[in-house]
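Suppose you are handed a protein chain with no further information: no name, no annotation, nothing but its sequence. What can you learn? This example shows the usual starting point.
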Amino acid sequence: MEEMVSRNQVMAWEEQYESGVYNKQPIVLVRGEGARVWDIDGTEYIDCVGGHGAANLGHAHPAVVAAVTAQAQRMFLSPNGFYNDMRAQLLKELVRIAPPGIERAFLCSSGTEAVEAALKFARLATKRTKIISTMRAFHGRTMGALSTTWNKEYREPFEPLIPGVTFVPYGKLDRLEQALDDQTAAVILEAVQGEGGVNPGDGEYLRGAQALCRERGALFIADEVQTGFGRTGKMFACEHYDLRPDLMTVAKSIAGGLPMGACLIGERVGEMPKKSHGNTFGGNPLVCAAALATIHVLETEQLPERAARLGARLMEGFRAIESPLIREVRGLGLMVGIELKTQSGPYLSALAEKGVLALPAGGTVMRFLPPLVISEADIETVIEKVALVLSTD
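A reasonable first move is to predict its three-dimensional structure. Written in structure tokens, the prediction is:
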């Protein structure tokens, strides 16, 4: 029999026994369905966090639950030293839905692992060592990925990191051109900077960066960890800009909320030595089944198209809010940010203390990443509630 515990007891246990590295809201979530979640006291919420972009299909999607249940009765784990039916099907599907030029995929367990793989593969393929990233970029927290992440708050405690990483301003093609030399292995870019403030890239800039890589023998890495699988209104954000990356990192919503990632590999990368990289749990049959179900749902329910439509309405509603606190509303699909004019002041501090408003660390952008299955009525409710929260009356 499960032990019945209170909200305070759950919070106390996590505070006592967890690592302590996370900032938490005083809410104990215990159940989710679609775009709704419930706390331990039965309070219902519209989920606009969306697992930081991992819950594109929402919570407990029936197709994913059925796929995982069926596969769990057959096999959880099949090491990569053997062939597996579910893994083979997923690899084929990932190449099918990827941008042109993608030929293969390396399966792993998270987004930061996918970035680690991309950086290693770029060095292997080019025999070069330098990497170019951008200011405000976020690519992960493991040592290689962290080295390409801009926020000094994340990087500095762990320095020295891997050498040879240069940061250039996002959107400034001339600065990238100056930095890209004959020792540059790769340029890694997000089509929409997520943690960097929900900052969509310019198509001319992104295509120009890709062209510079082709011209100078470097590889172009597209980080689609948060933007992939329908979030921005296309299956991948690259499609908005007609990009053909040499390496593409995906994760978060790839398996309907289960931990999984992949580094998609283009034709310019070439063959790689056996045992040059590996992952024990990468491509295990359980998450492969979930990912296959996720892709099927995204396509049959036309969720990328839905994200484009509902995201446009969400931004339209936010832009209509009359509040002196709002500087700008921006985004792509259901990846939306409201930039505030200030992060301080008694009004915002009071909201933060009540848990009504989570002020982002080191920034002033409220991010909204609701599941793509969110209803139109819930979108209107979100607009209404945000207008209420940002009112200064």
